[in-house]
Design brief:
mainly beta, eight-stranded antiparallel β-sheet, four-stranded antiparallel β-sheet, 12 strands
Length: 169
């Protein structure tokens, strides 16, 4: 990642209720959250959200576009006034070991003239067991404060999960 000027800020891994990236420094053009994650929740698929600076109010908007679970139906949607912005969709533990690849780009996190926004992709492949997905998710925090903390919501990552937060100079 260094060739693209992406500098590792913090890596989190292993089983946890959620991941919290704290003490995020300012001065980067953007952030990227990237890794492989599976939820320990006994479900087929798990939609995860993100919150900024521990804000649990209905100050987020979010959207989705893609194929989910074992269907060929295209899912699309946009919402406003949620308690977190969509981050990604990952596989649950119901069908066994199937880590999802996630990559989320975060913009405006230290610009006090605009909302923090993110957009990302996630893909999950359970193979012949079904419940494969490819989706694009987005979110925004309706606040112009500098973001110093990012929290995943509804993720419940398992022992094999890993996410790294990078900054781009």
């Amino acid at each position: 990642m260094a060739a693209n000027n992406w500098i590792p800020i913090e890596s989190l891994s292993g089983a946890s209720a959620n991941y919290s990236f704290t003490s995020i420094p300012s001065g980067y053009k953007s952030l990227i959250l990237k890794g492989s994650v599976q939820s320990a929740t006994n479900t087929f698929m798990q939609i995860c959200s993100m919150r900024c600076n521990s804000d649990t109010g209905t100050n987020y908007g979010y959207g989705e576009f893609g194929y989910r679970e074992n269907t060929t139906t295209l899912r699309t949607g946009m919402w406003d006034n949620g308690d977190g912005g969509y981050l990604c969709q990952i596989g649950g533990s119901y069908l066994g070991d199937w880590l999802s690849h996630v990559e989320i780009h975060i913009f405006g996190y230290d610009n006090t003239d605009r909302y923090t926004q993110w957009v990302g992709t996630s893909s999950t492949g359970a193979g012949a067991q079904g419940y494969n997905s490819t989706a694009f998710y987005s979110g925004y925090w309706k606040d112009t404060s500098v973001v110093t903390q990012l929290d995943t919501v509804n993720m419940n990552p398992d022992a094999d999960s890993r996410l790294t937060l990078y900054g781009r100079k």
